[in-house]
Structures are given as structure tokens and as C-alpha cells.
Amino acid sequence: MRIVVAVDGSEHARRAVEWCARYAPALGAEVVAVHAVETPVYALPTMAYVAAPPLTDEDREALHRTIAQEWCGPLSDAGVAFRVVTAEGPPAPVIIEVAQREDADLVVTGRRGRGGFAELVLGSTSHSLTHHLPRPLLIVP
Ligand code: ATP
Ligand code: MG
After folding, report:
1. What gap in Å lies between CA 123 and CA 116, rounded to an integer?
2. I want to staple 127 with a disulfide (CB 3.0 to 4.6 A). Which of 15, 21, 78, 122 is the partner?
3. Beta strands in 7-74, from DSSP E residues, in sequence order
4. pLDDT computed for residue 40 by the predictor
5. Rounded Cα–Cα distance for residues 139 and 141 (Å)
6. Ligand nearest to the CA of 91
7. Which residues of the chain have pLDDT under 50?
8. Is the CB of 115 under 6 A from ligand 1?
9. Phi, psi of 82 (to 5 degrees)
10. The CATH number of the domain where 7 resides is what?
11. For the CA of 13, the nearest ligand
């Protein structure tokens, strides 16, 4: 069994990771943590759009370390085997792509994430997954 957990560094995603740390052993599951790196695009007053500079190899390594050591801390603490996958792009399509490629039996996310409007019950990533993910989805409150 394989669980894909979506992480964005938020407290919500941390609770999703904690759920995996707690239940993956009982399910005999391997965990894959996925993070989508959103490349910001800036709109200038001239209406031109400028993309942020691409990540360097050092940026990528630092990010990978942060995800593995900090965001996935509860998994290491619980002795649960995991891998970290990062990809550039909007979160929901990236998570779906990785879930398909990894043949995930379950995808786990937080209800909300790092951004957004506090009053919304579901963030746009989780909301989009409920519509488009062709796999079981668990949303941790
Ligand atoms: P919004 O992004 O719509 O402004 P939000 O950030 O509060 O709102 P979501 O983005 O839907 O809410 O976050 C819900 C969950 O989706 C997070 O807890 C995390 O599990 C997952 N998620 C969000 N962003 C990413 C990302 N960049 N990479 C991987 N998983 C993500
Ligand atoms: Mg978000």
C-alpha cells in the first residue's frame, strides 16, 4: 500500500503528515510526500507578465531538506519510511500526477493550507482534488 501526502509547510499539512505517521504502520503503507513548487508570475503595470527566476539546484536541495527534515518530521519520529517528491506547477495537478505515477492507494491532504481566505472551509487545492482526483482522498481537519 502506498499513501501520497501533500505538504505545503502549513500547520494543516502537518496534521495530514501526523495522520500518516499514526496510521501508515497499521496499514503497512509506504508514504510519499509531494510538494508542488508554485512558480509565481508577476503582473507588471504594463500588463506584461514576468515569471520568477527558476529554482537553482541549491534551492531545490535546500527545499528537499526542509521537506524531509522539518515538514515530514512526524514520519521520521514514528519510524515510517517515506520519500519526498517535488515538482514545479500548480498544486492540484501536480498532486494528481504524482498520485497516478505512484499508483497511490490513498491521498492525504489538509483541509486548508498556507494561503487563502481564512473563512473558507476548503482551500482551492483540496477542493480541486475532491473534483478531479481519481483516487481515494482523505482530508484531515
Ligand atoms: P488556497 O491555496 O486556495 O489559497 P489554502 O492554501 O488555505 O487555500 P489549500 O491550498 O487547498 O488551502 O491547501 C490544502 C491542502 O492541500 C494542504 O494542507 C496540503 O495538504 C495541500 N497543498 C496545498 N498546497 C500544496 C502544495 N504546493 N504542494 C503540495 N500540497 C499542497
Ligand atoms: Mg494553498
Report:
1. 7
2. 122
3. 30-37, 41-43, 49-51
4. 77
5. 6
6. 1
7. none
8. yes
9. -150, 160
10. 3.40.50.620
11. 1
Q: Which atom of ligand 1 is nearest to 109's Cα?
A: 20
Give the ligand with the smallest distance to the CA of 4: 1
Q: How much is the mean pLDDT over the chain?
A: 93
pLDDT at res. 53: 80
Q: How many residues does the chain have?
A: 141
The whole-number pLDDT of residue 34 equals 98
- Is 137 close to ligand 1, i.e. is its CB under 6 Å away? no
In terms of residue numbers, what domain contains 37?
2-140
CA 5 and chain centroid, separation: 6
Q: What is the pTM of this model?
A: 0.94
Distance between Cα 11 and ligand 2 center (Å): 12
Report pLDDT for 121.
86
Ligand 1 contact via 113 beta carbon (within 6 Å):
yes
Does the CB atom of residue 107 touch ligand 1 within 6 A?
no
Give 125 Cα–ligand 1 centroid separation in angstroms.
5
